[in-house]
Amino acid sequence: MSEWEKNVRRVIPYVPGEQPADVNVIKLNTNENPYPPAPAVCEAVKKFDTSVLRKYPAPDAKRLVAALSDAFEIPEDQIFVGVGSDDVLAMSVLTFFNGKKPVLMADVTYSFYDVWAELFRIPYESIPLNGDFRYELSDYLRPNGGVVIANPNAPTALVEPKEFFEELLEKNPSSVVIVDEAYGDFYGWSAKGLLDRYENLLVVGTFSKSRSLAGSRIGFAFGSRKLISYLNDVKFSFNSYTMDAITLAVGEAALSPRSREYYHTMTEMIIATRESAKKRLAGLGFTCTDSRANFVFATHSVIPAKEIFEKLKEHKIYVRYFDKPRIDNYLRITIGTDDEMTELYKALEEIGCRQS
Amino acid sequence: MSEWEKNVRRVIPYVPGEQPADVNVIKLNTNENPYPPAPAVCEAVKKFDTSVLRKYPAPDAKRLVAALSDAFEIPEDQIFVGVGSDDVLAMSVLTFFNGKKPVLMADVTYSFYDVWAELFRIPYESIPLNGDFRYELSDYLRPNGGVVIANPNAPTALVEPKEFFEELLEKNPSSVVIVDEAYGDFYGWSAKGLLDRYENLLVVGTFSKSRSLAGSRIGFAFGSRKLISYLNDVKFSFNSYTMDAITLAVGEAALSPRSREYYHTMTEMIIATRESAKKRLAGLGFTCTDSRANFVFATHSVIPAKEIFEKLKEHKIYVRYFDKPRIDNYLRITIGTDDEMTELYKALEEIGCRQS
Questions:
Q1: Contact indicator for A279, A272 with CB cutoff of 8 Å
Q2: Rounded to an integer, what distance in angstroms lies between the CA atom of residue B333 and that of residue B273?
Q3: B343: number of Cβ within 10 Å
Q4: Touching check for A5 and chain B: CB below 8 Å?
Q5: Tell me: the pLDDT tens digits for B201-252?
Q6: What is the C-alpha to C-alpha distance for residues B16 and B12, in angstroms, rounded to an integer?
Q7: Predicted ipTM?
Q8: Is this structure's pTM higher than 0.90?
Q9: Which of A321, B84, B219, B254 could potentially form a cystine with A309 if both were Cys, beta carbons 3.0 to 4.6 Å apart?
Q10: Could you tell me the domains of chain A?
Q11: Residues of A in contact with B33 (CB under 8 A)
């Protein structure tokens, strides 16, 4: 090893789901939205005056923040935006989790949380979810340097109710609690209603799922003025201009009243497809968790998940398989269009999935 | 202070130049390009199929990397891309500067370097440039955990020659040397020619200056395969998808042979305006450094820089003033169009700037 390599931060990165170049695949592996973005997004891009690209974008992303404020009824100084919710979460971990006590997270949850902790050398504890993949509140009442919970959780697709978060926050006044609601719109309840009561609560959202803009990289967070101000200080110590000028226009367009109506309809469609998927998959011998997200988490009674994963790939259907303890016999399947799901069921039948 | 605040990373952020909302100002304060992006950029945006935004962008930014590879004749696995060169530099500081010895940087240079060091709690030393604002090579031969040098330097606009970097690299095999060439195209020489000889060299560039795409947030770095691989590991431990799908298309369009020709012409125009600016400003009583960037660094023989800065603002002309030791009687003035510069000279005359 060269001498300079001794100073290198060595990390094991998060591995995102595959993005196959072949467009003729059915892609149910990264929890993308099967429907296109709102028409206003297309219009915003078409009419974007590219001559302004010579100038830096607004460093405070003011118009996007104002649009979020309007859509979510949260004051502007309680809103933070970033390059997808991953950027928002990475900045939050860097900002808020600087104590010596471990940050608490589940063993089965978004697998980027421990990657960020490792990256920034933050002590953390992965606490096993219970046998039903649910959070046990008592596990999160021990001394800690922070808590991060996804709700709905991924890849389990399960949610915890309002009471869980109220008690969690009530008993954790000494550390920041992050609730990652990337899939929140498919559930319907948001912890943002608790913001007025807890200064140490950060609620994170994204445009990648219910707003069908994974390609535009827009994430956001709501929190107390203090929390958002600290977060902005770190963001401005990292990169003054994180949000592309076109992206800002895209985000704004996606929040217009008309766009919100459009997305509401799409979300309802995805929820309906998800509910029918639970039934269809049960009929094919799968057990699914009670998903409140835009994906299902399913295990088959006979055929190993890995085998189904590989055979589906031969059928040009991509789903997500995690070769990890406790979940290595599960598949995470994104809810596609009804047509895509019909193709999925057909392929599963061909693979031999049936009720035993 | 609340208990949770004790775990917060407190930092003093970098303050970028103002982005006034008023479009009727002459903006010479953030080293933006006065000319619009290449026509191909506009076409790429207009014809962009927004329906693909529902999907995540290519996490490896493959097509943009391929276009950079083609334009700069650097193999693809020696190229890293990020959200502007600030993102590239922040990731590089995080990746490469993990030793216990101080990272070496100049006292008068891009003022984000020490902000990143503070953010990531990396020891560093600000070494005074000599009386002519030039680097003294001997200062950079002491034991160190890394070196970061801007060439051309900002805000001084001065450059060091090839021989300086050759000797610097020859004598610093034990740490990573970052050469920040944000303004490199206005100089003409690049340290990338030294990549084959030094595995520990990282050369950083941006689309924000010579490519007139500050609004699109695209930066890049060239380095050895090893260096780029380490950098990618950290990037993928931070955010899988940093580059917006539209931004990737914009970047690719900006690198087509036709676009490169366009940008070459614009760069030549800016250099010509810069050279005439040096003369005109001298005639108005300023002393300028021998700028090789798209800005000049000027001090007036009689009127304090801060006063000129404020009076220019009243004339709706924004330049950059740094209230910092050694440079608090200097202005950093971005090279605008010839018309904008004529307005500047006129305003300076009105303010009372003349040869004494």
A1: no
A2: 12
A3: 17
A4: yes
A5: 999 999 999 999 999 999 999 999 999 999 999 999 999 999 999 999 999 9
A6: 13
A7: 0.96
A8: yes
A9: A321
A10: 3-36+259-351 (3.90.1150.10), 40-256 (3.40.640.10)
A11: 54
